[in-house]
Design goal:
Chain lengths: 513, 193
């Protein structure tokens, strides 16, 4: 390979892998990022275009200073469209260039462009005489076929449109006649037509969802991380990355796509209308609980409520206008910061208590919980914008299911106190095996869990299991998310029916807005 | 995405990679994986081969963050170049093997194929990196078959301006054809995965 690979800069450095590197042009200070991202030939084209535009703007300024304000200046020399008022165009909202300079120039030769990029435009007066130095213009949109050909500069400016077959038939004829007599234009025309062959539709291939973990694993095998991401934070890392990839793929309008959030409350499925952007706000707000536990800024501010639902309501209430895709970046920044912070925090941080208001989880569990919510809401969003969204990887799914099974006994006990579950039957000494339900979860995230029925202090036990429930891994997660009701969880069931009912309802009760 | 990549982000990322921060590697992947994968796919026209190149490129960057020189350009362009070189190198291996298996053929044909694949990847990268107004104009005129007057109207610019954008966009793109063949071994390809 040859050549420096970017921006035509000469940093005075030889790439060790490019022994015969050809130097680009000396670096022009203050270049924009777009040119930084391009490799030398393209970057040079863009750079010349920018320089030409700057010169043109300068020349135009000077010429305006010299001339009477109402005199036609060279600005009009190339007008193909007399009716078009605004020559100083391109106020592009996307801010790519920050200025319109590149657009008003001749990129190839750098010869002075006719435009006046930075001036307040004034409409050319149709009565103005054409610049005597110029040949008569073609008049858009329908030039007289029999009329004289447009000027050389107009013909040259048409080369791109010609190569793309985007001219009128008359213009095409004029350009092609011109190419037989103008070697530089013919040369450029050929190049531009070849360039058209390089345009290829964006196939928008989705990355395989598991590629990320395979790539990162391969990297870490080759060189171990000195600051690893804790294993309990990797589901959060993976799920936020997946959701981020989806969000980057959707258009502005899809951020307002309506969706229905579902959870289980007061013994039935509760719903709430939201939008894609609103859901990202919800995720960010609840992730903020973890952020503030770690001493980071709470996105809702210091005096924000602690319960996830209250926080979300506060966020949605406070918004003066519907949330938009502007929520994407703060959400992603916060999730990156969380991952980074827990990586640096050291081993003890896993046990740090994260308060959710009515309850608290150690950080290691809170990060699994947040990964779970991120997946579930990513799924909600994917459904709303019709996008494929597979389940998390097996090990991550397993970690999420494991957390849910650990939380079920205390939820069951709370429901029992509220009269929503059958009475405890055999209380045992804390820490010893108690009456249990065998939860058999199938699928990549599956496994066998024994859930203590009578007290959160008892230990689940295979020997003392009185009932068995078999569920698919994703189905169990849907139950825990409140997306399906306990009655819908059409599980393989066997044994004590009250125990089965109590566990399925407790699982659904783990869900919340 | 490239547009809001300040040099500071690049340098900071380089430092974080150098000190072995796995979280930085994840962020790097999130930012550049689709670029790497799509360039590799353009050259090799095969998803699994593109997966493999993606592994190679990120493996190389993770092991050699110091090779990146911010003075030479953006991290994005560095990574795009690595992707293209690894992919072209892989294409050369595959084609050479196929060539030999079939008893050898026209060597010039093989070179031509590699040249074309490399130019296609360069062109793709140029399209993703050019200023968005240029890309929008090309998109309308080429993919949506609008003539330049319609393109001007769609973009809300003058016809003059539309012509300029189309021409400059193609000029940028045509530079993909002017680079010499890249075929020597790119950094890091000798390593096994």
């Amino acid at each position: 390979m040859t050549g420096p690979f970017d921006g035509g800069r000469d940093g005075g450095r030889r790439d060790p892998d490019e022994p015969d590197g050809v130097r680009g042009i000396p670096r022009i200070p203050g270049q924009r990022a777009a040119a930084d991202d391009l490799e030398p030939p393209a970057a040079d084209v863009l750079r010349r275009a920018l320089e030409g535009a700057a010169r043109a703007a300068q020349a135009a300024r000077e010429s305006r200073e010299r001339e009477e304000p109402d005199e036609p200046d060279e600005r009009d020399e190339q007008h193909g469209d007399a009716g078009t008022a605004d020559e100083a165009t391109v106020p592009e909202p996307d801010g790519v260039t920050g200025d319109a300079a590149w657009a008003v120039t001749d990129g190839v030769t750098g010869d002075t462009a006719p435009g006046t990029a930075h001036e307040p435009a004034h409409p050319p007066d149709p009565a103005d005489p054409p610049d005597p130095a110029e040949e008569p213009h073609m008049r858009a949109p329908a030039p007289e076929p029999a009329g004289p050909p447009p000027s050389h500069s107009v013909l040259k400016s048409l080369l791109g449109a010609w190569a793309l077959a985007a001219c009128s038939p008359e213009e095409t004829t004029h350009v092609e006649d011109h190419l037989t007599e103008c070697a530089p234009c013919a040369d450029e025309a050929l190049k531009l037509r070849d360039a058209v062959g390089l345009l290829q539709a964006d196939r928008n291939l989705d990355l395989p969802p598991l590629l990320r973990s395979r790539v990162l694993e391969n990297c870490l095998d080759r060189r171990a991380a000195r600051i690893p991401v804790p294993v309990w934070a990797t589901p959060y890392d993976a799920e936020t990355a997946r959701l981020d990839a989806l969000l980057r793929d959707i258009g502005d309008a899809e951020w307002h796509a309506p969706l229905q959030l579902k959870w289980f409350e007061k013994e039935e499925t509760a719903t709430r209308r939201a939008t894609v952007a609103g859901v990202i706000g919800h995720l960010m707000t609840v992730d903020g609980l973890v952020a503030s536990a770690l001493g980071l800024d709470d996105p809702l501010g210091a005096s924000a409520p602690q319960s996830p639902t209250d926080r979300t309501e506060a966020l949605w209430r406070a918004a003066h206008s519907p949330p938009t895709r502007t929520i994407h970046e703060p959400w992603r920044d916060q999730s990156h910061t969380l991952i980074r912070t827990v990586s640096f925090a050291g081993r003890g941080v896993a046990e740090l208590s994260v308060s959710y208001g009515e309850f608290a989880l150690p950080l290691r569990d809170a990060m699994i919980d947040r990964a779970f919510e991120c997946w579930i809401h990513g799924w909600d969003i994917a459904n709303a914008v019709v996008y494929p969204y597979p389940a998390p990887s097996g090990p991550h799914l397993h970690a999420m299911i494991n957390l849910a099974t650990q939380l079920i006994p205390s939820t069951l006990a709370a429901r029992r106190r509220a009269g929503l579950a059958s009475p405890a039957q055999q209380l045992v000494v804390p820490g010893s095996p108690g009456r249990s339900l065998h939860l058999e979860v199938e699928g990549a995230g599956g496994g066998d869990w024994y859930i203590a029925l009578d007290s959160p202090a008892a230990v689940g036990s295979a020997e003392r299991s009185v009932a068995q429930v078999a569920l698919d891994d994703v189905e169990f997660c849907q139950l825990v998310a409140g997306h399906i009701s306990p009655d819908e969880a059409a599980a393989g069931q066997d044994g004590d029916r009250d125990a089965i009912r109590d566990v399925l309802f407790a699982a659904a009760s783990l869900s919340r807005l | 995405m490239a547009k809001d990549t300040p040099p500071r982000w690049d340098r900071r990322m380089q430092q974080r990679l150098a000190r072995g921060e796995a979280a930085a590697l994840g962020e790097l992947y999130d930012r550049f994986a689709s670029l790497v994968h799509s360039l590799a796919h353009r050259v090799l026209d095969d998803s699994e081969a593109a997966d493999r190149i993606t592994r190679e490129v990120f493996g190389y960057v993770w092991e050699n963050p110091d090779v990146f020189d911010p003075r030479q350009g953006s991290m994005r362009s560095w990574i795009a170049k690595l992707a293209r070189l690894h992919a072209v190198n892989r294409l050369r291996q595959l084609e050479t093997a196929a060539h030999q298996a079939s008893g050898g053929g026209d060597a010039e044909e093989l070179e031509q194929k590699i040249r074309e694949a490399s130019a296609a990847a360069r062109a793709d990268y140029i399209v993703t990196s050019m200023p968005a107004p240029l890309r929008a104009a090309l998109d309308l005129a080429y993919f949506q078959r609008r003539d330049y007057r319609q393109t001007a109207a769609d973009l809300g610019v003058t016809e003059d301006e539309a012509r300029r954008r189309l021409r400059l966009g193609l000029q940028l793109l045509s530079s993909a054809n002017t680079r010499p063949l890249e075929g020597s071994s790119p950094p890091g390809t000798g390593r096994s995965l």
